[in-house]
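Recall that a protein's primary structure is simply its ordered list of amino acids. Everything else, from secondary elements to tertiary packing, is in principle encoded there. The following example makes that idea concrete.
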Amino acid sequence: MITAIIFDLGGVLIDWNPEYLYQKVFDDEKQMKNFLERICTPEWNEEQDAGRTLKEATETLIKEYPEHEENIRVYYDRWEEMLGGVIEGTVEIFRKLKDKSEYKLYALTNWSAETFPIALQRYEFLNWFDGVVVSGTEKIRKPFPEFYQLLLDRYNVKAEEALFIDDNLRNVNAARQIGLDAIRFTTPQQLAEELLARDFEI
């Protein structure tokens, strides 16, 4: 019996993509993709999700790629422009689950402690959760099992009574390995179908 639902945020409830910003910075899409794949990479960004400061991250990368200093600084100077808004269909599912009051609802997110307050101020629904665990604050991130366990322990949730939702297959597989039922999110419609198949009423 599921008593708790754990949501990822970026890519599930919030549309976040560095390309939204860098499409304004680069005239050439190929150059933009090369920059994001080779310099301001997802792996580099995950270090901030794990607690590295934005200042240290920026300066470290500039030392390595001084010729790209201007575009590296843009990453966090204009970070808000990476936010594409809410994923309305998922927020509606979240709202229906919240209204039923049958489940505890939590967020487990890989997110910098320095940028998360921006999202918290911008998106009212982030205040609907019964608990939010932010990787940058805890200095550990998905897919490390200790991060999932931290949420379970903090809120007294049993793994076998929780459902985890994330758009990243790596994170979904890690959740399953510690005993969580997990859904890999692709679209709100797909999520609704997966929930209905598990006998959730939404």
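Residues 88-100 form the longest helix (13 residues). DSSP finds eleven helices and seven strands in the chain.
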